């Protein structure tokens, strides 16, 4: 009996029996040891890449990001921005003005994701026929 995907992500071994030999395969895609898996956890989270793409043009207010990411609820956007802030991908700037102003901006770590976003854009143009909006 094989392991579940969750078991494999946890790094547990699975034994496969074939005609030639028996071998044990350890998961190489555990997010703590595999850089691709760790990155996929970040960019694979819903809305993350779209928020990073939006912030690539500079600091944005919450409502600007909300309008740009059509379909995201304010609660989900707030949660996602807090998570991106905790991951040090986004920094939140509060300004003591009346009315108060808050902007979000990419950190160096967040800007390091921009080549990945550019590749996704290229892939979308070339293979998916997307890009009619000049993204």
Automatic annotation (TrEMBL):
Q: Which residues form the HTH hxlR-type domain?
A: 34-132
Q: What high-level taxonomic lineage is stated for the organism?
A: Bacteria, Bacillati, Actinomycetota, Thermoleophilia, Gaiellales
Record-given protein name: HxlR-type transcriptional regulator
What are the GO MF terms of this UniProt record? Answer: DNA binding
Which InterPro entries does this UniProt record tie to the protein? ArsR-like_HTH, HTH_HxlR, WH-like_DNA-bd_sf, WH_DNA-bd_sf
> Which superkingdom is the protein from?
Bacteria
Keywords attached to this Swiss-Prot or TrEMBL record, sorted alphabetically, are: DNA-binding, Transcription, Transcription regulation
> Transcription: is it a keyword of this entry?
yes
Species this chain originates from: Gaiella occulta
